[in-house]
Design brief:
4 copies of one chain form a homotetramer. Chain A has helices at residues 24-48, 51-58, 65-68, 72-93, 101-117, 122-131, 136-163, 171-174, 177-192, 201-213. By secondary structure, chain A is an all-alpha fold. The first copy, chain A, has 2 domains: 12-69, Orthogonal Bundle (Arc Repressor Mutant, subunit A), CATH 1.10.10.60; 71-219, Tetracycline Repressor, domain 2 (Orthogonal Bundle). In chain A, helix 5 packs antiparallel against helix 10 (201-213). The radius of gyration of chain A is 19 Å and the shape is elongated. In chain A, 37% of the residues are buried. Chains in contact: A-B, C-D. At the A-B interface, helix 1, helix 6, helix 7, helix 8 and helix 9 of A face helix 1, helix 6, helix 7, helix 8 and helix 9 of B. Chain C binds a DNA duplex through helix 1 and helix 3.
DNA sequence: GATGAATGAGACTTCATTCAT
DNA sequence: GATGAATGAAGTCTCATTCAT
């Protein structure tokens, strides 16, 4: 029977509290631009996106973008930074806990499905994959700040799961990529094939967990 | 004990051997252009690639590209088609066999690691993911010709594995995505993070297989 | 003895005076581009004209043209439209009158010589002739809006002239082309042969009228 | 009652007897290229014509054109020269005769309608008009060799018609353009407006002659 | 701060011309 | 002589960026 899960913050709530000096209106503008940029970049990629379209979608004039971002590339980088900041913070805040590992993993999976796979945020993953070759800095930053840390944390978690007898195979501790791979597939699937072959990401992830921890889990 | 594995064709060998009409030299040129295009597109994406660079890399003049491909988009599509054709053919030729499922899967994994993850071909996967949003036709074609078929075949294979008692969980039969997810991660990892965090794809895939079929497999 | 002729508008004056929305400066730019385009197109034809040259002549940058016209062909069509609009309007406004037909015709001839043969506008006639084959739409539009109407009106006018006894031959009523043919020659001559064989268009047209109506006309 | 007209040569028969050295086959090739060039240039103009299309229409390879003409412009000039040569020769051969002027003029008109207005040759007139601005040399050559001479000859002819009492007005002698203007209109009309407004060129020219010489002419 | 007209570098594409076969 | 693959200059059009208002 599911115990009441500890609340995990909604990612969208974790917003870097307006850096002080910037005006209320200025921040709103900046956010509108970033939101529009996400829509455009995630559909058209970096090179394929026109700042004209970003501006139109944000409801402002083209020149205004340059009041907030020095150029297209900066806008792109800032967009990714703004989207990952909450994730990085959430990872850092994750307290060492003594609950069953499955419970923790299930919460993370749940968070991922709700806040990434089910939203426009999943497109960022495609963006990273798409533009990583063109912006090696971007790939490196992303690895050091997000992927590397997350995998390390998950590896440690799975090692504990083995210790605790929750999981038999040590493979997940050694290759935490095996743990997150289905999540990646779910995120990519959403943007690419959803139209002609819907995929129930939540169900697939549950099946994945059942394989890892054995049937009949925490829920 | 590993039986001698039946030979699987090297993908790169499955090339439509100058389909008759085209001259020897013409085919070579065409292939040189496609090779250069793969390099450029996979790093810079569709919009970010300059045909000038493709031409330079292929060692020809800009205009020559247009003798073989009517425009940039056609070149892009033909590139993907040429890279997938062998895979589709290999899938279609896969004979129904009665060997242990693990053996078949291991051969497929081996093929994938050698011929996709270990070569520039892996970048095509990134290309599909990156450009699928902009070329819905591309995504659909790719799904119908490759992904859909492959997943269906794998699903059937895993269902048989359950029947035969080789695998306990039915999850892989229902969500064959779980089976290929690590392969996808390996392919993406190669292009993005290999430089600062090498990943032994073959070892990871072996670990994956061990999880599926239990320790101590065919090798 | 010549009666005081009713005033006919100068064609160049019949300009749709900034149709409301467009800014003062914007209209000026647009007109400058059209003027430059006339110069270039009439010398080099459609295919032979470089937008670069149009821009240079208009004193603007290449890209600016595209703020006012979506492409080269549109610029070309708009140019012709802008030059014919006043003529079509003048034709439509021509009031039914009861004056001697010769007087009316003389005014029209005068208008034509002054406002077409004597200006850059004559080149448009050469343009239509030159490019009509490549732009069938253009030829058709021109026929329906200008040539067809004008010839019909002139035919009716000459029929009245026969009724009134001003003209003996009915040929001009049946083939109004015979009436305008010298005007066409004058317009073409201007652009082609003027340099080495000047032609006094006005005098030739007077001689033409004398043939039609007999010597000693209204002037 | 019409007297038996003296035979006038068909223009197409007046071909500069193969300049000696050139092979039979070579001349045929050259002529095929010129014929194809006429079709293409007259529809698309000089700049708008692709030598590729000329070659295809002539049934030869692109490079072959360069065996017969040093470049595109030379081909164009040679084309016009080849088309006008017979006309110039016909004009030069025109013997001073003592027949009624009307008879001579009627034969010329007939020749013009049959051999120019009714054939692809009429497009050459449009070509001259179209490209005269871009090739001032062309316009000058055309004036000196064809137009100037023809008009001079016609002027003299009409002067004699006045002397002989065949024509009252001296206008045609002074402005022979008035004589040929309807012919020009007929030629242009054919290429431009024929589709939506057919014009009986022969009938119009007869009406024109009736105006000049009075009703009831030689035929 | 905000605008959007203007710029011009740079991309895709065409096509006259060359030249090895 | 004939071919047609190859070239690369040049043209059309786009779009990131600037700047006067």
């Amino acid at each position: 029977m599911p115990r009441p899960a500890r609340k995990l913050p909604k990612l969208s709530a974790v917003r870097p509290a307006a850096a002080g000096a910037r005006s209320q209106r200025g921040t709103a503008r900046r956010d509108a631009i970033l939101a529009a940029a996400l829509e455009e970049f995630s559909v058209n990629g970096f090179a394929g996106t026109r700042l004209d379209d970003v501006a139109r979608r944000a409801g402002i004039a083209k020149g205004t973008i340059y009041l907030y971002f020095s150029d297209k590339e900066t806008l792109f980088q800032e967009l990714l930074r703004s989207l990952f900041a909450p994730i990085v913070q959430a990872l850092e805040r994750m307290p060492p806990d003594t609950r069953p590992v499955r419970e923790t993993i299930e919460q993370l999976v749940d968070l991922f499905v709700r806040e990434v796979v089910g939203t426009r945020r999943r497109d960022v993953i495609r963006l990273i994959i798409a533009e990583g070759g063109r912006f090696p800095k971007l790939a490196e930053f992303h690895y050091r700040e997000v992927v590397g840390r997350a995998l390390a944390a998950l590896g440690a978690l799975m090692a504990r799961a083995v210790e605790r007898g929750e999981v038999r195979s040590f493979a997940y501790a050694r290759y935490p990529q095996l743990l997150v791979a289905p999540g990646l597939v779910a995120a990519i699937w959403g943007g690419l094939f959803e139209r002609f072959a819907p995929l129930d990401a939540a169900a697939m992830m549950r099946a994945h967990l059942d394989i890892i921890f054995g049937e009949g889990g925490a829920r």
